[in-house]
Design a protein that fits this description.
Length: 90
Amino acid sequence: MSWRIRFIPAECQKIAVSINNVPWTTWSASQGDVTWDLPSNWANLLCINVYGAVDPEGSEGTMFVYWHDILVKEFHFDDREDHDVDKPTG
């Protein structure tokens, strides 16, 4: 099992993402609705900090964070946002 992030086209052109304060990727709206697995160094962590910043600022961005196929956090934001996301228990 591992962490995954789904990017959903909204108003923004790009979303830059950092995991645990380390730059990870920049998604572009031209890539469409995609879900990417996080690299193995973050795959089995019990908690991750996810930071997203939209471009251009003020446009809406949407991304979902999953633990395997379980949705654990929805991001709907128009600037930048970060959250600690815990692996589901049970």
